[in-house]
Amino acid sequence: MAGIVVVFDFDKTIIDVDSDNWVVDELGATDLFNQLLPTMPWNSLMDRTMKELHIQGKTIEDIKEVLKRVPIHPSIVPAIKSAHALGCDLRVISDANVFFIETVLKHLGIRDCFSEINTNPGYVDEEGRLRILPYVDFHTSPHGCNLCPPNMCKGLIVERIQATMAKEGKKIMIYLGDGIGDFCPSLKLREADFVMPRKDFPAWNLINENRTLVKAAVHEWIDGEELEHILLQLINTITVEESQLLSVECKFHTMSKAAHGALPRALPVPY
User: Fold this and answer.
1) Secondary structure (3-state) at 5
2) Cα angle 90-85-178, degrees, rounded to a multiple of 5
3) Per-residue model confidence as pLDDT tens digits over 237-255
4) pLDDT per position as a tens digit, 112-121
5) Is the C or the N end of the chain the one with fewer CB within 10 Å?
6) Model confidence at 140, in pLDDT bands (50, 70, 90)?
7) Torsion-angle region of 199 (φ positive above 0: left; ψ -120 to 50: alpha; else: beta)
8) Does 137 participate in catalysis according to the annotation?
9) Which of these, 89, 62, 69, 64, lies nearest to 4 by C-alpha position?
10) For residue 259, what pLDDT is reported?
11) Closest Cα to residue 206, out of 234, 174, 177?
């Protein structure tokens, strides 16, 4: 199982809602958020909203308590724990932020299942206010992908992971996501890989409209129950195929050694 990397989106994939909107709505900042939405980039808007909530007296603990109530399908945690127990390398690529994601994953008891979280930075400053920054400083170092939002190209992150996979001997990636930003990484997957878009969500629509551009096998899912079933079935299928291939290679190696040992030794050259 060391050969499989499973990459999860976070919003509407691991959890059933958008974490940014969930926190904003639950803490009563929806009107302000909607008022400012046309005026600034999303990450800047989230940072500004957290500032306003801080001014209103909302604390980091208030934010954490809201995140601990985030809706999640009951099959998601078992799916993640099972994939991790089977030896898969689990990672997150998300346009949420590290504070929200780590708070939720720690609360669910699955943070240690993930080897890496790729997302927008989020930290608590010296005043006790949550700061949220873009993954890419698009003013000074734009990523150059016209399919993705300016703050993050998930496709570039997948390419970096693929490069490390090659060095570590990992062969197959399974990518799960739902949003527009999950289409670009789907295009980076190879024929041996699998993409699991959430049915009737933007990534699924884009993949269906551009099937000829997607090399990976597509397995759609509706909810957490289907996600768990399909993901573990794929892992099991890959495992069986790898075991069969290894068995064939071992037999071939054994037969080659036996055949080599049966060859007559060269006779001495007469003088």
Assistant:
1) strand
2) 35
3) 999 887 776 666 565 555 5
4) 999 999 999 9
5) C
6) confident
7) beta
8) no
9) 89
10) 55
11) 177
Buried b (16+ CB within 10 A) or exposed e, 121-150: ebeeeeeebbbbbbbbebeeeebebeebbb
In the chain, how many H helices and how many E strands?
10, 8
- Could you give the 3-state DSSP secondary structure of residue 6? strand
Measured CA to CA, the distance from residue 87 to residue 90 in angstroms comes to: 9
3 state DSSP class of 31: helix
How far is CA 217 from its chain centroid?
17
Distance of CA 229 to the CA centre of its chain: 18
Pick the catalytic residue: 9, 18, 47, 89? 9
More confident residue, 111 or 168: 111
Burial (CB < 10 A; 0-12, 13-18, 19+), residue 239, is middle
Marked catalytic residue, from 11, 18, 20, 193: 11
Q: How far apart are CA 153 and CA 140, in angstroms?
A: 15
Question: If we measure between CA atoms, which residue out of 117, 116, 122 comes closest to residue 100?
Answer: 122
Tell me the torsion sign for CA atoms 14, 73, 37, 57: negative
**Tokens representing 241?**
């195929």
Active site residue 11: yes
Per-residue pLDDT of 206-229, as tens digits, reads 999 999 999 999 999 999 999 999
Q: What are phi and psi of 93, to 5 degrees?
A: -125, 115
Residue of 86, 103, 100, 89 whose CA lies nearest to 50: 100
Q: Strands 194-197 and 172-177: what pairing?
A: parallel
**Tell me, what amino acid is at 107?**
H
How many Cα atoms occupy the beta-carbon half-sphere of 4 within 13 Å? 24
The tens digit of pLDDT for each residue in 76-92 reads 999 999 999 999 999 99
From residue 106, how far is each of 98, 138, 233 by CA, in Å? Answer: 12, 30, 26
